[in-house]
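call fold(seq) -> tokens
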Amino acid sequence: MVAMYRTVVVGLDGSPRESHVFQVAVELAKLHGARLHLCRAVSIPLGLPDAVWSVSTAQLDAALLAEAEKALKERADTARELVASTRALIGQPADVVDDVARETKADLIIIGAHGYGAVERLLGTTASKIVHRAKCSVLVVRNPQ
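ret:
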């Protein structure tokens, strides 16, 4: 039996690799007649300047969410006919992708692979967490290099 993917969640992170992950998702969606649900996890980054802390956490969260949603919408505009939704949510990337996949009843999750730093080896990569939690298939896209 050939797998048919109709609802695909694409985890995007704003990294330089995002463009390649998105292009793979677009090509797969075209082949399967699928709809894409783009998502991005947002959290307060470490090492923010002290001046940032003069605003409330709610204001900071709102600003980060707005920036992430804007980036997702810009990405979605390049394949408008395929993108069903964009979602930026506060949380850990594995949790956000898993939540969106369950909400949309995804047939497939597409995420990028990343390198293994010391912390990732100790705690487990986002990709590994998603693969182990997902109720659907997961495609981990590697860099073309």
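Strands lie at 7-11, 35-42, 83-90, 108-112, 137-141.
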